[in-house]
């Protein structure tokens, strides 16, 4: 995809591909070099590859009524869109934030569908110059939805141009250089910008203030994920019973994208080694084969906890030392494994380093030593000191 190029709604794009989530060090040919642990965790990676986006397209909800979970965001957004349709005007600009895999792209597509308007897709990394953004904005029609993924990674000159476009629906194109440069105002029709970001804190305040509606997507609970698995199974013509869907949901780390990915792998297992029906025992066998445990932890997660407890007595231990112990890059441990371990209560970040919680010791089936961090919490888990 060339800089600044956008696509109509529904086309496959290769945008926002990055290795910032610790996919390994680049090889000599520029391809990422994955360690065995990083390779094995592809099943639980919240980011989607280019090929997977095409598969996801068939499972995406097409309207707000089909969306499962995120009730507050769905209700608020529905009110905004209904009011905009009643006024016959484009809705306010929308900012969606939250971890990857929770449905930011899906909601952007739903906005375009609910407003019956075309959607243009681009990304922050693709817009490196103000001219790239000007080319995209000049091609918009009235009421179009422009989806800008990873908006926090847009260049500063393009960001400053976007301020004027969002407020006054106008961009100033600079012609010439130096003292003879001239700014030519270019009017653009009213449009709706939908920005998506996984790191809302990196957005400058002036940009955040120009969005009329902001929404933060939360991780899903097991009940909502079970409904998502059941819905996806019907679309994929997979027979799954209630217990089988619940088993997949509880191991999906609160992320619909991971739930759908696990469902497809369990489907393959059921097709090859069983009668095609996904039951709880079959789902457990399949996910055990793919090394996803009952709490959604994979080999990398367990390696981090095992090193922390078995080698370092539960901590505290520095991030760099912990990364060396598991044979991974520092960024991989910090940005790939740690967020879920911290959110699940297995690991704590302290000023002195990383510390295993009593839940981590219990999950590994280990006895908490008397000198381990948080020894007073051992009684909460029924573990004798």
Question: How would you explain this protein's 3D organization?
Answer:
The chain is an alpha/beta fold. The protein folds into 3 domains: 7-216, P-loop containing nucleotide triphosphate hydrolases (Rossmann fold); 222-289, Helicase, Ruva Protein, domain 3, CATH 1.10.8; 299-381, Arc Repressor Mutant, subunit A (Orthogonal Bundle), CATH 1.10.10. The chain is 42% helix and 14% strand. The chain is built from 15 helices and 14 strands. The strands form 5 sheets. A 6-stranded mixed sheet has the order 1-5-6-9-4-10, covered by helices on one side. Strands 2-3 form a two-stranded antiparallel ribbon. Strands 7-8 form a two-stranded antiparallel sheet. Strand 5, helix 5 (130-138) and strand 6 (145-149) form a beta-alpha-beta unit. Helix 8 (222-235) crosses helix 10 (256-273). Residues 1-33 and 375-385 have low confidence and may be disordered.
Helix count from the secondary structure assignment? 15
Q: Give me the oligomer status.
A: single chain
Name of the level-1 CATH class of the largest domain:
Alpha Beta
Domain count: 3
The CATH H-level homologous superfamily of the largest domain? P-loop containing nucleotide triphosphate hydrolases
Number of DSSP strand runs = 14
CATH topology of the largest domain: Rossmann fold
Q: What distinguishing features does this structure have?
A:
single chain; 385 residues; alpha/beta; Rossmann fold; Helicase, Ruva Protein, domain 3; Arc Repressor Mutant, subunit A; two-stranded antiparallel sheet; 42% helix; globular; disordered C terminus
